[in-house]
Design a protein that fits this description.
two-stranded antiparallel ribbon; mainly alpha; 2% strand; A middle domain of Talin 1; globular
C-alpha cells in the first residue's frame, strides 16, 4: 500500500513537472513564430496541458484498460469545464475573447455531440477515431489561418540566440518523456488502488486520474488568470477540451486494436453532463463577455454534485436513481434555461444600445 502510494505520488509529480517543462519550452518556441496569446492558449498551452491525458490514454488503450482511458478523457473535460473554470472565475473574473464565443466554444460543443453520437451504439470504432483525427487536422488548419500578431521585436531577439531555440526544443522532448513516464506510474498505481478499494476502472478514471491529469490545466489557468493573461486562461481550457476528444481520443484510438467499448453509464449520465456543461459556456461567456464569481461558484456546485453522483454510483446506493433524475430533469434544465434567459436579456440590451447609437449618429448628421 505504502509503495503504491509513493509511485502514485511520483506519477502525479512527474505529470505536473513534465507538463510545466513542456508548456514553458513550447510556448517559448511559439513566440518565435509570433502567435497571438489566444491562439497560444488554444493550441500550444492546450496541447501541453492535454499531454498527460494523451499519455495516460495511449498507455491505457494499448494495455486494454479502455474504461480507464474513456473515463480519463471524459472526466478531464468535465473537470476542466466545471472545476477549473469555476475555481479560476472564483479567484478572479475571467474576460472572454469574442472569437472564443463565435468559433471555439461552438466547436467544443460540436465535437462533444459527435463523440456522444459515436458512443450511442456502445463502442467507438477505428473509423470514428479516424474522423476525429481528420476534424483535428481541419481545426488546426483553421487556427493557423486565423493567425496571430507577430511580435517582431521578440522574434528578432530570439533569432539572435539559436542556442535558446535548441534548448527549448530539448526541454520539450524532456518534458514529454517525463509525462509519459509519469503516466505509466499513475496508471499502474491507480489500477492497484481500484482493485484494493473494489472501485471500477471507470470511476477511477473519471475522478482520481481525471483530476490528476487536469492538474497542469489547474496550475496554468490559475497562474494565467492571476497574471492577467485571460486569453491564455480560458483559451487553454476550451482548447484542451477540444484536443482531449480530437487528439487524445481520436489519435490514441488509432493505436487500439478493435473498437473502444463505451459503458452505458457514460452515455446515460457522464457524457450528458459534459454536453450540458459545454452548452452552459455559451450564455455564461456571452453575458458581458466574461465569467464572474457567482458563475464560477455555480460551476463548482455542479462539479461537486457530479462527484456526489459518482460516490452514489460506486457504492450502488438506492438514492442514486432519484438523484440522477433530479439532476438531469430539474437542476440542469432549470440552470440552462435561466442562463439562456439572462443571455437573451443581454442580447436585447446590446441591440437597444446599438439602435440608440445609430439614431444619435443619424441626428448628429
Amino acid at each position: 500500500m505504502f509503495e503504491t502510494s509513493i509511485w502514485f505520488a511520483l506519477g502525479l509529480v512527474a505529470l505536473i513537472g513534465g507538463a510545466e517543462i513542456l508548456v514553458r519550452s513550447v510556448s517559448k518556441l511559439a513566440v518565435i513564430i509570433g502567435i497571438s496569446k489566444l491562439i497560444i492558449g488554444l493550441t500550444v498551452v492546450a496541447f501541453g496541458t492535454s499531454a498527460p491525458e494523451l499519455a495516460v490514454s495511449i498507455r491505457a488503450g494499448i494495455d486494454g484498460n479502455t474504461d480507464l482511458m474513456l473515463g480519463n478523457i471524459i472526466g478531464s473535460n468535465i473537470t476542466n469545464t466545471l472545476l477549473i473554470l469555476g475555481l479560476a472565475a472564483l479567484v478572479i473574473p475571467l474576460k472572454v475573447h469574442v472569437k472564443l464565443i463565435k468559433w471555439d466554444v461552438p466547436v467544443m460543443i460540436f465535437v462533444t455531440i459527435i463523440v456522444y453520437l459515436f458512443a450511442l451504439n456502445g463502442y467507438i470504432s477505428f473509423f470514428e477515431c479516424l474522423i476525429l483525427t481528420f476534424i483535428l487536422i481541419v481545426y488546426l488548419i483553421f487556427l493557423i489561418r486565423q493567425g496571430g500578431d507577430t511580435n517582431l521585436k521578440i522574434r528578432t531577439k530570439e533569432k539572435r540566440k539559436p542556442t535558446k531555440i535548441i534548448l527549448h526544443a530539448i526541454l520539450s522532448i524532456v518534458g514529454l518523456y517525463i509525462l509519459v513516464t509519469g503516466a505509466t506510474w499513475l496508471i499502474n498505481s491507480s489500477l492497484i488502488f481500484a482493485e484494493m478499494a473494489g472501485v471500477s476502472e471507470l470511476t477511477i478514471g473519471l475522478t482520481v486520474v481525471a483530476i490528476g491529469t487536469s492538474l497542469p490545466e489547474i496550475v496554468v489557468v490559475l497562474i494565467a488568470a492571476i497574471k492577467g493573461e485571460k486569453d491564455i486562461a480560458i483559451g487553454s481550457i476550451i482548447g484542451s477540451n477540444i484536443l482531449n476528444f480530437l487528439a487524445v481520443l481520436g489519435v490514441s484510438g488509432l493505436f487500439i486494436p478493435g473498437a473502444i467499448p463505451v459503458q452505458e453509464a457514460l452515455i446515460r449520465f457522464d457524457l450528458v453532463i459534459l454536453l450540458i456543461a459545454s452548452i452552459l459556456c455559451i450564455p455564461i461567456f456571452y453575458t458581458g463577455h466574461k465569467m464572474v464569481r457567482w458563475e464560477g461558484l455555480l460551476f463548482l456546485c455542479l462539479y461537486f454534485s457530479y462527484l456526489f453522483y459518482l460516490f452514489l454510483s460506486s457504492n450502488e446506493y438506492d438514492f442514486l436513481t432519484v438523484f440522477t433524475s433530479i439532476m438531469l430533469y430539474f437542476v440542469l434544465p432549470v440552470t440552462l434555461i435561466t442562463l439562456l434567459i439572462l443571455a437573451l436579456m443581454e442580447w436585447k440590451r446590446r441591440f437597444r444600445f446599438r439602435n440608440f447609437k445609430f439614431k444619435n449618429k443619424g441626428k448628429s448628421r
